[in-house]
Amino acid sequence: MTDLRIFAGRSNPALAEQIAQYLGYPLGRVLLDDFPDGEISLKLLDDVRGCDAFIVQSTCPPVNTHLMELLICIDCMKRASAKRITAVIPYFGYARQDRKDEGRVPITAKLVANLLTTAGADRVLTLDLHAAQIQGFFDIPVDNLSAEPVFSAYFSSLVTGPLTLVSPDVGNVKRARVYANRLGGDLAIIDKRRVSGSETKTMAIIGDVKDKTVLMIDDIIATGSTVARAGEVVRDYGARRIITAATHAVLCGPAVERLSKAPFDRLAVTDTVPIPAAVREQLPALTVLSVSELMGEAIRRIHRNESVSSLFMK
What angle do CA 35, 40, 45 make, to 5 degrees? Predict the structure, then answer.
C-alpha cells in the first residue's frame, strides 16, 4: 500500500486519524490556515504524484467552509498529479436539497456533485446519503455505505423482549424495514407533516408499540424536532423502552435542548460529525459509535480495486 495517501481536512480530524490507524498508515501532512479575509490557505506537505489519494472531510457545520476546504484540497491534489482522488465524505451536506418540490428553488445536492467533479474528484465515498438517488447526480463512481452493521451490532446487545422498529416519517420506512428484518422486530410508521424547516407536526402512529421496546432509526438529527416529537408519541402510545439512533448528529439550533428533554432511554449516533464534550455531558443517554473501521475497510478495498458491495446495506 505504498502508493496510498490519506489526508484530512479540519472538519473531523479525529475520525480521519482512526481510519488511518485502522489501515496502519499515517495521515498525510497538510498545512491548512485562513487568510485574514477568511480565504482558505492549503498546502500538501507530502508528495502525491502518481498516488491513490483520499481526502477525509465531512461537510458538517460550518458547511460552506468545510465544503470549500474539500474542493480546494481536491484541486490541489489534481494539480500535484495524484493518480486518483477519492473524496471521503462521511457526512454529505446539502443532501436534503435533492429536488424541486416547489417553483424557483435550487437542487443544491446536484450543484455540490458538479463542484466535486469539476474540482477533480475521481470517486466519492460517503455514508447514509439522505436520499440514495443523489448517487445519480454524479458522473463518477459513488460508494454510499450504510451504518447498519455498526448500529445492528450495538442494538443486538441492548434489545430484549418484543421489539418494534419505528420510522419517524414515511420517507424513512425502507431503512426501518432493513433493521426490522435484521433484528426480528415489527414495523411501525409515524405520520409526520413538516411545518417549516425547523418544525414538524406529528399526526398519528401506524402500528403497535404498546409494552414494546421501540427502536427509531433516522439518518440525520438536525434540530431534533422529528425524533423528539416521535419519542413523545411512542411514549404516549405505551412504549416500554425507547432507543433512538441516527447516523449523522448535526445537532444545530435547539437540538441539544430538545434531545435532553426527550423520553429516550438510549440515543446512539456515529462519529461522522464531531460531537463536543459539552454536548456529551448534556446528553447522558448519548452513545457515539465509530464508523472508522467501516470506512477504512472501504478505502482499503477501493485502493486494491476490490469489491465493496459486502459493506453496503443488504
Answer: 105
Closest among 274, 236, 211 to 58, alpha carbons compared: 274
Among 192, 212, 261, 314, the one annotated catalytic: 192
Among residues 147, 155, 150, which one has the least CA distance to residue 130?
147
CA distance 217 to 130: 13
pTM for the whole structure? 0.94
Domains defined for the chain, CATH in brackets: 4-147+292-311 (3.40.50.2020), 148-289 (3.40.50.2020)
Residue 314 is among the residues annotated as catalytic for this protein: no
2 pLDDT tier (thresholds 50, 70, 90) = low
Cell numbers describing residue 21 = 490507524
SS (H, E, C) 287-309: EEECCHHHHHHHHHHHHCCCCCH
- Cα separations (Å) of 285 from 66, 104, 144, 265? 29, 42, 28, 6
